[in-house]
Specification:
Elements: H1 5-18, E1 23-27, H2 30-41, E2 45-53, E3 56-63, E4 76-78, E5 87-88, E6 102-107, E7 110-113, H3 114-119, E8 124-130
Antiparallel strand pairs: 1-3, 2-3, 4-8, 5-8, 6-7, 6-8
Length: about 130
């Protein structure tokens, strides 16, 4: 059994984007769902759908490509890991990749992209980065 469902999900997205797959399937967790909501909001994926198969849940993610067929995701990376949590204040998460990338931050107001967390002046655990 895997111990880090978020790292597994991000790896599946990264691998599917490199292989130019249209859809990939992830194991379900509430946090993964919130992360995908941020990815969709920022335009890194087309969308996602939760699928129930008996007593198990999965998330079907539709990846997004530009007109040349290249993935819009250049890099997706897990930052805060189970063995080493990374927390940042709102001032430290203002910019990522000069505004071309997004940090996904788990705050007391929910899972937010770094720009919204900065506007609301909340810091938190930096889950992952994408650009």
């Amino acid at each position: 059994m895997m111990s880090d469902i978020i790292a597994d999900g991000l790896t599946r997205i990264r691998n599917a984007a490199q292989r130019k797959m249209e859809v990939t399937t992830l194991n379900h967790s509430r946090l993964m769902e919130d992360i995908l909501k941020v990815f969709e909001e920022k335009g890194y994926i087309e969308g996602y759908k939760i699928i129930e198969d008996g007593n198990k849940k999965f998330i079907k993610v539709t990846l997004k490509y530009d007109e040349d067929g290249n993935s819009v995701i250049n890099e997706v990376k897990r930052i805060s890991k189970p063995g080493r949590r990374v927390y940042k204040g709102y001032k430290d998460i203002k910019n990522f990749k000069n505004g071309f990338g997004t940090l996904v931050v788990s705050t007391n107001k929910g899972v937010l992209p770094n720009d919204k967390a900065y506007k609301e002046k909340v810091g938190g655990e930096v889950i992952c980065s994408i650009w």
